[in-house]
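Notebook entry, structure prediction.
Reason for the run: the old model in the group folder had no record of what sequence produced it. Starting over properly, with the input documented here first.
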Amino acid sequence: MLTGQQGRTGLRDKSNSNYKILMSEINNKGIQFEKRVFSLFKEELEKDRLFVKSESCKIYYKKGYFSKDRDKNITFDISIEVFLPGESDYSILIVLECKDYTHPVPVDDVEEFFSKLQQISGANIKGIVVSSNSFQEGAFNFSKSKGIGLARLIDGSKFKWILKRAATGIVTYKEHENAEYNIQQGLTEENFVNNQIDFYGFYNNKFTYSARFLFEYLLQSTLEKFEGIDDIIVQNDNERYFVPFIPQKDIENKCQAILDNIGYTAGKVSFEDLLKYLETSLGIVFNFEDQLGYDELGFEILGKTNLDQSTIFISKKGNENSQRKKYTITHEVGHIILEHKNYLSKEYYAENDLDGGGFDLINLKDIKRLEWQANYFASSLLIPKNNLLTEFYKLINRLDLKDRGYGALYVDKQQCNLNNFYKITNLLKQEFDVSRKAVSIRLKNLNLLNDPTGFYS
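New structure, fully documented this time:
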């Protein structure tokens, strides 16, 4: 190992083997990032998820464009050529420069990229700098003044939800509401933390989570100059869901089929019988480990699922409480039974998800839908509907509670309503051996509990 002045001198010596190894590693890492960016935009383009239709574009990796100043080609990392209907030559050129640094992108790099763009002939040339890290303030301001787009592509391999397609492709206009500050943080703060969204973009004072919208901002004013642009623009469906809706009845039926197969009749569900059936009949693999660690926000991870392999990992330490353990497992099972593998590769369940806190942190409506479905599955399996209805109305009659227009069970801050709420939920959680929170959410989903405060459910 080289140390001190020897090490510094050795690394400056380009004939030194350590220098060559270091530069080789840096170059390989940079190439991997370039190919990741290329694959992302190529997929989005081919699936018509960018602003311009795929049939009107060609995408290239490491293509050269002629510079009069240099009298030779300048090779760019990625380029996308946009063709108007009936034209054989491209009318718009979009050039992407990739930066995979361990530090924020400096202004010098953006200035150099801008200089290259100016050397390419043609009036309709647009540039985007795509980085794995943040951008220095000077780089951000320079790009804004020169009309250069910025994008940060975060490594999503450690995300809470690892989607089968990039999160950038499922963002809608609605999810940009009140998100400008968050996106700006993602672009300018090196240690920015997010476990859902992998793409942060900026152009002309507009911020976006979406590659599609970044292209729209970049191209809209230019395309308006041409005729026939409607034929090459992808019309966006703002309300489209990536994850389909599953009726509550269908989820209930799936749970009832499992309960029938394990011979359930009443009371708490035998978890031993349930796990045995899930393993032997449905092929789900359970691995119980001492601990699964913590997420980026510091919450303990209770369970993780590899959906492609139908394998669930459960933390022994995080699930010492039997009620928590049952809910964690059935939530993870829900992702598998409801075939979320079509949309997710992996996901994890953390301690803040138990009280609904994790749900409030979800930005993407498709992920919210996946999590809601898994939660509904867990509560339906642990608290079977027909049995719950029977026990609930027995208690209502025993306590002589009357529906005074607010629902069968109403809870607010008044002591009498609180007393009734605690009496009923205490008895139900004992009957089904689940937490009060699980009972409350189940009652609310079945319209049996009216909790206008949202505090108790």
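Summary: Residues 1-12 have pLDDT under 50 and may be disordered.
The old model has been moved to the deprecated folder.
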